[in-house]
Amino acid sequence: MLEISTWTGLSPGAVHFYGTICHYDGEDELQQHRLEQPMSAKEAARRRKRDRRAGYTYTSWRAGQPTTGFDSSKDIIAAARKVFREICPRCRVLLRGSFGVGGPQAVLIGPRWFKTAGNHLHREAVACGWWEGSPRRMRKLEREWDSLLKDLEIEENDR
Fold it and tell me: Which neighbouring-strand residues pair with 75?
């Protein structure tokens, strides 16, 4: 599961997005991996300038140092696709969403049939306004999503 968070639009001055890949290990323990990238020279200069404006006399932001801040959710998705197999070699599916959501979620990595069907259900959930927009439609979509997950589990067991 790729969870993406941001304070952009909620907190003055917030400009970054953050990504965490969550999965269960072989012992059913939840593992969380915060995505990082090397800081660009432009980002380091921007942070130094921000710190100086805030009155800090020493700032240590340098190009190349690791940062968890990304400029967009697209950048996070690209980074997640690159490291997903390293982080979770036994996993076959990467969803974008949250463990707190039981309904259709965007499928980033997975078997083609699962991606096609899962992303179709996700688009329908978005279009109907989720539970707030159409509880009746969402009940149907959730049943279809649950069935899709069961089919994926059956395929996993047959491997």
Answer: none
Q: Looking at the 3D structure of the chain, how many domains does it have?
A: 1
What span, in angstroms and rounded, lies between the C-alpha atoms of 58 and 43?
A: 17
Taking residue 59's Cβ as centre, other Cβ atoms within 10 Å add up to 14
First vs last Cα of the chain: how many Å apart? 22
- Residue position matching structure tokens 């076959």: 92
What are the structure tokens assigned to 76, written together? Answer: 């996070």
Please choose, from the candidates 68, 92, 88, the residue with its C-alpha nearest in 3D space to the C-alpha of residue 4. 68
Task: Render pLDDT for 41-89 as a digit per residue (tens, 0 to 9).
Answer: 998 998 888 888 888 877 788 999 999 999 899 999 999 999 998 988 8
Rounded to two decimals, the pTM is 0.84
E-assigned strand segments in the chain: 2-6, 17-24, 30-34, 37-38, 66-67, 94-96, 106-109
Residue 3 within any structural domain of the chain: no
